[in-house]
Amino acid sequence: MAAAVKIEDLHKSFKVGFIPKTKKILRGISMTIEEGEIFGYLGPNGAGKTTTLKCILGLIFPEKGNIEIFGYPYLSLRAKERVGYLPENPYFYDYLTASEFLHFYSQLSLIKKKEKEEKIHRFLRLVGLEESANLQLRKFSRGMLQRIGLAQALIHDPSLVFLDEPLGGLDPLGRKEIRDIIVRLKEEGKTVFLCSHILQDIEMICDRVAIIVKGEIINQGQLQDLISEKIHFTEIILSGVESKELEGVGESVSALGGKILLKVIEEEKIETVLRIVQSRNGRIHSLIPRTETLEDLFVGMVKQG
Amino acid sequence: MKIRAIAFNTFKEAIRDRILYLLLFFAAACIIFSRLLALLTVGDRVKIIMDVGLASLSLFGAMMAILMGTGLVYKEIDKKTIYTLLSKPIHRYQFLLGKYFGLILTLFIMLFFMSFIFLTLVFLHTFRIEWELLIAIFYIFVEVCLLTAVAMLFSCFSTPILSSIFSLSFYLIGHLSWGLENSIDKMKPGIAKTLTQILYAFIPDLENFNFKTEVVHHLPIPSEIFLFSVLYGIFYSLFLLFLAILVFRKRDFI
Question: Which fold has domain A231-304?
Fold first, then answer.
């Protein structure tokens, strides 16, 4: 079975400035995205995430490298038929209504006439815009544009969906809804390529990630392999004990309501803390072991890179 | 099918553009103004109305083609709507042809309205429909199609302001190049004549589409000139569209 996307040694540079100077944006990107996974593509601003996406979608042409989508050359119509794309900060034809807009995009994807109306209704319902079907896009909020953009990316039932910052500009509820849609896409067997700055979301839904810094992929793999399971420290919130008594076992910070937040680095000292609390008839409110997060990994790598 | 979808969307976009209505208003005003001009002129009033009316149709048709054609592709790139469009299973040439035909459809309808006003005005004076005027209007339309292709070509790699200047220059050169043809006849054989002939072969001759005088003054037009002008318009437009496709095919959308 061919990979959903296979990229080999991708290079791209642009000419910038009045006296044109070559600026290298991508320096030999290689990665494989397997069918049916949610793949997170992370990187700081200007790292080359959107440039990679535009290369895959044929919006810009790489100087060197090879891209295949489901085994087909990336510029072929057979490859494009299986791809859906939601760009970052999408701008659409604002004179069209939501329904006209999806109608136009379904025509470009050669959706059969019989299926068209049903699909338009289904996808408007999916992104929660059923009631705005006859509203012009110029009257849409940013979050609504993001949703209608997602609907146009999905209208032709693609097997592979590229989403560039799909959660940007959405309120917490909207973010959850879009996250749920992405997870549902995976359940339907679709492959999702997700570029995002919101690391919590990536961590929550992605199977694998790649981190790009200055045009190079500095790490990629399954999330559990990248993030160490090792406990870095334990956070204990307790009360009924004087903070003086906890000196030497961890860093204590006074919290609201007479509670103490204690950061214990050495695991064996947790038992000492529990003993102290028990002897003073105090109370443990919470005890949370902190492992490495994707954010820790990302910040560390970007700093190194 | 895909070209048609893009063409109809372009048409929808164009008819919601205020510039179009502004130009249509001025064109109608100019045609009606010809009636006033005829009152102030000594001579055949109908001929003055026909002359000014056809000139207005030609000028405003060209302005519409240039002003709207130059923004045609640029707007899609500037507003980034092209990203989602080209990620769909379409070829870049289909996008370009869709935009072109969409604007041609818009211009056809605009010319139709302007012509209707013009022919009605003439009818009120002569009490008969001057079918011959349709010949001149048809060639104005052919010229407008060619100018749209020019504007679109420039719009593929330049900003609307620069593209408008280039297209306007093309329009002016095209209408003055007949002077070069006259010079060639008067020149002695030699390098200068050959070079002028080569130059004349490359620059457009938009006077090929000007049948206004012949129509207004009921002068005979040889049939081979009719055919030549249509073929000239078609092939020149195709050549320009081909160049636009070549430029657009390898363009990066940053």
Answer: Alpha-Beta Plaits (3.30.70)
